[in-house]
Amino acid sequence: MSDFLDLQNGWYNGLTQGLGQNQDSFQIIQPAPPIASGTAANPTFWAYYNNIPPKTLTAQFVASGGNQFYNNYRGLLSALVPTRQIDVKADIGAENFAAWHAYVQTQPAPSMNQIPTMFRNWAMFNAPEVANIGSSDYAAILLDPVATAQNELTLVYTTPMGLPVNFDWQLNYADMVNQLASAPPRSFSFDSTSMNTNVSSSWAGSSKSGFFGLWGGSSSTSTLSEQFASSRIQVNASFEHILVLPNTPGAWYYSSVMGLAFANQTGNPWSDKSSINWNNTFGPNGNMQYFGANVIVASGMSITVTSDASYSSLDQQTITSSGSSGFWPFYSGDSGSTSTNRVTFNQDGHMTITTSSIPGVPVVLGVNVLPAGQFVGHSSSLGISLFESAKAFAAEILAAA
Amino acid sequence: MTTIFDAQTESMTAITDGWYNQLAGSLNLSTQYFQLLQPPAVPASDQNLWDCLNVVPPVTLKFNRWFYQQPTFFSQYAAVVNGLSFPESAFIEDIGADTYLEWKAYLDSLAPRPPANKLPSVWFQWAIVHAPSVANIGRSDLSTQLLIEGAQAVLQPYEGPDGKPADFSPALPDLKSTLQASSGASFRFDSASDDPDVSNSWVPGEDPNYFGIWTGSSAAFHVSRKFASSKITVSVDFDHFATVPVIPGPWYNSSLLHQAWASQATPPWIDSTDWQNYFGSTGSFTQAVGSVVVADGITLTLTSDAGFTTAEQAIIESLAAMGDWPVYCPVSSVAVSNSVSAGPGLLTIRFQSAPGNPVVLGFNVLDIRSYVGAG
C-alpha cells in the first residue's frame, strides 16, 4: 500500500517519463498557468526564460521575478576584461608604427574591419617583415570576444542616455503558438501499482514536503485522501500537441563569453576590480547557477484518472461537491477557463476523473532547469577555444608562417 | 520546540492555520512559501495593485496588513543600491595619460558629442588607428562603466519628491487577462476535520492570528473565541485562480541586488555595517515577494454553529461590511459583498467578489537568498 507521498513522487516520475523529460532537469510549473495572449504576451512568455527559477525545496516551480538572466548578464559583462592585450607598436616597431599611423590618417575614414587588410597592403611595400604580424595583431584586436560582447551590449541594448534597453528572446509568443500547432501529439499512462516512487535523483532531490496537493479539498492525511492514495490509480494522459521549446536570448547575449567566464574560475577574463566574480556568479551563492532552458507547452490536454477504491455514496457526494480540485493537473474549471473536469462513479463506487483543456490554448507544463555548466556547455567549447587561441596567440609564429 | 500560544488567541490561530493548510492543499501552493494576506487586496488600478506588491513581507503565515508595518520593497532596494559604490573607472590609467589627452582632443572636436551608448564604439574606431594596443581595454572600460552606471541610473527617475511610482509586472489588465484564461477551483473547509498543524511550514514557531471573527476585531474577543471553537464549514468557489510571478519594474536590477547581498565587504558597500542592517538576521530586507496568489469571482459560504447571544448576533451582522474570517475582505467597493445572517446556533456568512475584480489572497514569499538566486 502506498501512502500519499509515494503517490506524489510516483506521479512526478510518471509525468517526467511520460513527457519524455529527464528527472535531472525537469521542473513542474504548478498550478500550470496559461500564457494569456495580449499586450504583454511576449514579456510574459520570455519571463519563463529570463526569470531564473529559485532552487526550491521541491520539484515544484515557485515563480519569482527576483533573479533575472538579462540583468545578471549585464552585470557579468561589467566584471570582465579583454582576453589579451596586444602591443602593435612593439610587434611592428616604433618607426614602422609611426609611418603607418601617418599613412592611415591620409586615407578616407577606413572602417574598422578594413584595418588588418589595409595594414597588410601598406606593409607589403613599406615594412614587409612585419606585414603578417601587424595584420594578425589588428585582426586579433577586432576579434576579442569579451570587448566585442561588451561593445555590442552597450551599443545596441543601451539607450543614448546610457540606460538598459528591454531584453528580447529570439522566439516570441506567436512563434511558440505556431510551433505548438504543428507539434506532435503525445500520450502516456501511469499506474500506481508499478510506479517508481524514488525521486532522490531528481534535480531538487527528495523532500518531505509534498510537492503536489494531490487531493485538493481535504488535507493529505484525511481519510478520503488516504483511501484515494492507497487505491490503484491509473492515469491516461494525452496531449494534442506538446512542444519542448528551447529559446535563445536575443543579440544581447554572447554565449561564447559566458562560456569563457564559466570555464575560468580566476584570472582573465575576470576583472580584479569588480566585486562580481566566479564564485558569486556560478558558485553556491551565485545568481546564475541555473537556467530555464526549455519551456514545455501543451494544448488539447486530456487526462483520465481512475481509482479502484470503493467510494461510499457519502464520499461520492463529498468529492463531487468539492469539485475535486486537486489531483494535478486537475482544475474544476467553468466556461471561459482553459480546462474543465468531470467526476463520475461507476456502480462499484470506482471513481473516474476526466480533465480536458480547451484546444489551441497553450498551457505551460514545466521548464527544463539546467545547471550553468550544462547550459553554457554547448557554447563553452567555442568560448574556450577562442580563449585558448587568444592566449596562445604568438605573432612570431604567424609572422614566420 | 514547544510552541507557546497566547491562550487568548489560540483558537483563532488554530482555525486560521487550518484554513491556511486548506488553501495551500486545494490550490497546490507550497507551505514552504505561501503567505495569507489579511485583508486581501482588491485593486482597482495598476497603482493599487503595485502598492500591494511593493512590500517586504514579514515572517508570518498570516500577513496582517493592519498589524505589521512593513517597509516597501522599493525603499529597501533603493537604499541598498544607493549604499553601494563602485570604483572609478580605470580608463585613464589603462590607456595612459598621453593617449587620454589625444582622445579627449578628438572627442572635443566632435559635434555633436556622441551619446553614451556610442562612446565605446567611437573610442574603438579612433583607437584602432591611434592607440591600437589599448583599443580593447579602453572600450571594455567605457562599456563596463556604462553598464554599472546604467544599472544605478535607471533608479533615479523613481527617487525624490517628484519620483515616478515604483511599478511592477503584472499590471492590472494583464493580471485580469491571465486570470480570465486560468482555471477555477472549488473546495470545502470543515473545522471538524481540518489540519491546523503548520510545524512543517516556513514559519513553524509562534505566529498568532491577530484578527478575530471580523476584520479589525481581536482574536482575543470573547465572540471571536466562541466563533473559533464552533463547528465551521466553508465552501469556496473561484471562477479563476492563478499564481503569477511578481517582477519589479525597469528600476530594478537583479544583478545589483545580488551583488549587494553576496558581498559584505567595502566596496561595494560604502558603510561596512549596512549589510547587517539589511540582510542580517534582524535586517529590514530579508524577504521578498516571489509571486502573487490571486482569485477572481469568489463565492464563499460559511456556516458556524456557535451559540451567539442575540446581542452578539446583532454586532456581527452590523459589522458585515468589515468583512469576516477567513478572507477578511472589507466591503470597500461594489466589487465585493458580504452578508451575515445570524440565528440561534447558526451563523451564515456569504462573501462574493464580482467577476473581473482580482482578489489578491496571498504571496509566495522567498527569503532574500533565494530571491537573488543563491538557492
Low-confidence stretches of chain A: 203-221, 324-337, 379-384, 390-401
Number of helices of chain B: 13
The major pleated sheet of chain A works out as: 8 strands, mixed
* Overall body shape of chain B: elongated
Shape of chain A: elongated
Number of helices of chain A: 15
What sequence of helices (H) and strands (E) makes up the elements of chain A? HEHEHHHHHHHEHEHHEHEEEHH
Structural class of chain B: alpha+beta
- Helicity of chain B, in percent? 25-40%
Radius of gyration of chain A, rounded? 29 Å
CA-to-CA gap between the ends of chain A?
Answer: 75 Å
**How many structural domains are formed by the residues of chain B?**
2
Distance between the termini of chain B: 26 Å
Describe what you observe in this structure.
The complex is a heterodimer of chains A (401) and B (375). Chain A has helices spanning 4-18, 41-50, 69-77, 88-92, 94-106, 115-126, 131-143, 145-156, 173-181, 223-230, 255-263, 279-282, 313-322, 372-392, 395-400; strands spanning 26-29, 60-61, 186-191, 233-246, 290-307, 339-345, 351-357, 363-371. By secondary structure, chain A is of the alpha+beta class. In chain A, α2 (41-50) links the parallel β1 and β2 (60-61). Mean pLDDT of chain A is 78; it is low at 203-221, 324-337, 379-384 and 390-401. With 375 residues, chain B is of the alpha+beta class. In chain B, α2 (46-53) links the parallel β1 (34-41) and β2. In chain B, α1 (7-26) crosses α9 and α6 runs antiparallel to α7. In chain B, the strands form two sheets. In chain B, strands 1, 2, 4, 5, 7, 8, 9 and 10 form an eight-stranded mixed beta sheet that branches. Chain B has a two-stranded antiparallel ribbon with strand order 3-6. Chain B has two domains: 11-72 and 166-371, no CATH class; 80-158, no CATH class. Chain B has 13 helices and ten strands. At the A-B interface, α2, α3, α4, α5 and α7 of A face α1, α6, α7, α8 and β4 of B.
